[in-house]
Amino acid sequence: MAKPSKRSSPEFSGGAKAAKGVLSQRELVIVAKRDLGLRATKEGVSSMAGANVSPLADLLASEGLTLEPLFGVSEERLQAQAATLAADTGVDLPDLSVYYHVEAPDERLDDLAKSLIQLDGIEAAYVKPPAEPAEFWLNEIAPQTGEPPVVAPDFTSRQGYLDPALTGIDARYAWTLPGGSGAGVNIIDIEWGWRFTHEDLTQNQGGVVSGANSSDDNHGTAVLGEFSGDRNAFGITGISPDAHVSAVSLATHSSAQAIRIAADRLRAGDIILLEVHRGGPRGSDGSGQFGYIAIEWWPDDFDAIRYAVSKGIIVVEAAGNGGQNLSDPVYDARPVNHPVLGTFPAGWRNPFNPANASSGAVVVGAGMPPSGTHGRNRQPIWGDVYADRGRCFFSNYGARIDAQGWGWEVTTTGYGDLQGGSNRDQWYTDQFSGTSSASPILVGALACVQGILRAHNRIPLTPARAIELLRATGSPQQYGPAFTFIPNMTGSGYPQNHPARPRTECIGNRPNLKDLISRALETRTWVGVQFSGTIAANGTRRWFTSRWPAHWHVLWTVVPTSPRPGAPQIEWQVRLERASDQHITYWISITNLMPVPVNIEARYAVLGW
């Protein structure tokens, strides 16, 4: 495949711009074969398996490079953490110890990837494009220059996403319930910069817990305001203002490393937000966001997300603003000696394809707000059709997308176009946009649900259960608008009579907290017989029963149906396999304690879900 040239899509030319000053660098990642037992320290590289790693050492020495564990700690520590977690959860974890990072000049990364993949013991060597905030602007937004009032106005009436369905997610209903403002829930936002000194972000804020805070902090400040804005009489109010919020910075860490750091600070039921995307196989290579996709497509990010999800942490991931059908077969193709992307591991499978293993993250698309929000109709400026909950033209879509949030017209902290002045701690916007504005809405909604479950002494939603409920409830996606070319809007590039965006271009439902909470609190109890059989005299047999929902509470009892009084007849042992995020397999071994055959039946009791 030829290296993509810089280009513009008809839909992504003109005013579509990413945030400035917060772009990461390209990253060179290598994956060692597991049986190599590679170890990398400041002193050099070695093999725990006794393999010859001198070609790797020679290459690194010739380039003046150092190989470092990608996830920031030693291979032994990563393996020990994985073993402990696997023992606690019964879940097979990705091996993070085989990932390494090579720091080198950008112009050398592609050639180094080609050289590294030729070495024995190296399974993959790939170059990740820079990560960027997943916001989308049609025009530059400048802060107001006039000084604001002493006390900011109450902007909550402009936060339509707080309102009841179908307009919003009905956060106001959640607030009427114990725990419904996110109490007891921890959230970590992963991106670049935040203004934790903002006047509306003074409560329940933990600051940057790892990495350096970027001075380009409008994006992160806007994100926090959506779900963490203080409850007071001025400014905005977050969806889950009682949740405790902190941040891990991509100004210091790679995206995969940041996910692991965040996961190790959280507990089951807490939330990580990934406010990033990067250019994929159809990426624009520097000319806008066309082709940008969710970061889980890259192996190290996928495994880092899996690590977090295996701990029961809900990961909310922006789908990206690339206008891509993530169900397109182009994403199934494993990069091998790709001129830009390099070579992925042989076992890699496209996580956007539902037939393959999922990262377990909640992936969020961008939908349109109700017509006329803030007196603006973003997309009908090009035509005469507008549909609330239709797909924003920039939003990625496809079977992998789980839910949508507002992709335009989000009122929150930062930027200063709604209220500006000389003090940035008093800035507000009502034009935050992109899958960046959509994803925090999902974070807030889920934090409300988790807080309510904790208040009821219930087990919080698992990642799989969260996805299941988001897909089963909510306000359904609508058709998106058609639009026509208006020359004075962007100068050139937008097509005439662009077709409407149908519901088949899936971005999921908009959450409806009233329905979501009801389903999350729902419980059922019933009993039954799953199987029966015969066990030979003094023999043992094992049965398995699969695809039990992981969030169910199930008790097993095995009883003999052959009467024989006088002594115990059987004993049994139940073992569990977490076959996936969604399903558990029960393995039931039954031993006949008698010298004659015995008939049995295995009974289950579902205590609730």
Give the low-pLDDT segments: 1-21, 380-384, 484-497
| Domain count | 3
Name the overall outline: globular
Describe the strand arrangement of the main beta sheet, using strand numbers. 9-10-8-11-14-16-17
| CATH C-level of the largest domain | Alpha Beta
Spatial extent as radius of gyration: 26 Å
The helix-and-strand class reads alpha/beta
CATH topology assignment of the largest domain: Rossmann fold
Helix content: 10-25%
The average pLDDT value, as a whole number, equals 90
Strand content: 15-25%
Task: Give the terminus-to-terminus CA distance.
Answer: 49 Å
Mind telling me the CATH superfamily name of the largest domain?
Peptidase S8/S53 domain
Query: Per CATH, which architecture of the largest domain?
Result: 3-Layer(aba) Sandwich
User: What characterizes the major β-sheet?
Assistant: 7 strands, parallel
Strands, total number: 25
| SS element count, helices | 11
